[in-house]
Amino acid sequence: VQVTDGPFTNFTGLVDEVKADRGRVRVMISVFGRPTPVELEFTQLEKI
Q1: Of 7, 47, 15, whose CA–CA distance to 31 is shortest?
Q2: Which backbone phi and psi does 31 adopt, to 5 degrees?
Q3: Which of 41, 47, 44 is nearest to 20 (CA)?
Q4: Residue 36 has what pLDDT?
């Protein structure tokens, strides 16, 4: 997925966990070459 809003805009990552009841997704993005978990809202992501 690609992040479309917030401080991680234009970062790409892999969905790690979907929290449908909260409308959030945990995405693993690469920050300084290390995988980093970030929790975002569905509306902040775009499928690529």
Answers
A1: 7
A2: -120, 120
A3: 41
A4: 97
CA proximity to 13, closest of 31, 1, 25: 1
Question: Quick check: 12 and 26 in contact, CB under 8 A?
Answer: no
Q: How many domains does the chain have?
A: 1
Name residue 37's amino acid: P
Q: CA nearest 26: which of 36, 14, 13, 17?
A: 17
How much is the pTM? 0.87
Q: Supply 46's token pair.
A: 């775009």
Residue-wise pLDDT for 7-47, tens only, equals 999 999 999 999 999 999 999 999 999 999 999 999 999 99
Domain that holds residue 40: 2-46
